[in-house]
Amino acid sequence: MESPEALEAYLYKNIPISHVMGVRVTFASAEKISLTAPLAANINHKRTVFGGSLQAVATLACWTLLHVNLREDTDPSEIVITNSNIDYVRPVTSDFTATASLPDAARWQQFLKTFDRHGRARIQMTAHVMQDEEVAIDYTGTFAALKTG
């Protein structure tokens, strides 16, 4: 498992917007990834976090979790987002953290089985941003993984 610092360097090199947005990897495991970003770099005219920034960091958290797991378990692969939905439940008024968690074990194993058998698979991933211990955004993205090696 890569350290948070190594993952952060990978994101900055390969997804440069992550650096511009001030994204930091604050927690990384095979089951969960948390990415934090500052309000100052992502603020809108209402002095809250810009909705596009929330969506971008949530997408990146899910993508990174999938990347970590596929890098550890399988042949080289490419990951792309194919669809996403976000519910903006409440405004985010401070630095924020998007946390993505691995889907339940049965769904994850089915994804890996399909990926291994066909060289491609899709899976839904979720992420949340909390504000004052309440959900501020609820994000779901569908990601496709393709074997490249």
Automatic annotation (TrEMBL):
Protein name: YiiD C-terminal domain-containing protein
Coiled coil region boundaries: none
Domain of life the protein comes from: Bacteria
SUPFAM superfamilies: Thioesterase/thiol ester dehydrase-isomerase
NCBIfam families the record matches: yiiD_Cterm
Organism this protein belongs to: Kordiimonas lipolytica
Residues of the Thioesterase putative domain: 6-146
Pfam families the record matches: YiiD_C
